[in-house]
Amino acid sequence: MFRRGLWRLGRTMDPFWEMQRLQREMNDLFSGYGRISGRDFPAINAWVGEDEIVATAELPGIDAGKLDISVAGDVLTLQGKREADKIQEGDVYHRQERNFGEFSRSIQLPFQVNADKVEAQYEKGILRVRLPKAEVDKPKKIAVKSEDAGR
């Protein structure tokens, strides 16, 4: 506890600390201006069932017609575009935390899927994609033959 207090005291005595913090914040602000980070957006959950994988993605404020969903092998890709807010000419943002622009997010699936049977549903800002397991990746029961079986 004493060490943490000394660290804070040392930080406030550094005349450049606040300038460096401000510079970091400005760099963060402008490095992603107008773009949505492919790593962070959209947030995706995915779970595996017996015969399928289901993925959900948070896509609030995005027109379903501007979503492009594709599957290639064992990779699911979501692409789309979030339009910028329409503000009146001369208005200036007080705070802007929601990003806009094009995005692309790909996740590797744990198995090949049957692309012809993939289903997607978009409701209340949540995209749900059901990806059935391809027949080649489904476990197959193998009959064991034995010479003893006939006796």
Total domains = 2
Distance between the termini: 80 Å
Binned strand content: 25-35%
Number of strands: 7
Overall average pLDDT:
81
CATH topology of the largest domain: Immunoglobulin-like
What general form does the structure show? elongated
Overall radius of gyration: 25 Å
The secondary-structure class comes to: alpha+beta
Strand order of the largest sheet: 1-2-7-6
Number of helices: 2
Largest sheet: 4 strands, antiparallel
| CATH-scheme architecture of the largest domain | Sandwich
Given as residue ranges, the uncertain stretches (5+ residues, pLDDT < 50) are 33-38
CATH class categorisation of the largest domain: Mainly Beta
Order of helical and strand elements: HHEEEEEEE
Structural notes for this entry:
The protein has two domains: 1-31; 37-85 and 98-138, Immunoglobulin-like (Sandwich). The protein is 18% helix and 30% strand. It has helices at residues 2-13, 17-31, and strands spanning 44-48, 52-58, 68-72, 75-82, 101-108, 119-123, 126-132. A hairpin with a 2-residue loop joins strand 6 (119-123) and strand 7 (126-132). The longest helix is centred in the N-terminal third of the chain and has 15 residues, at 17-31.
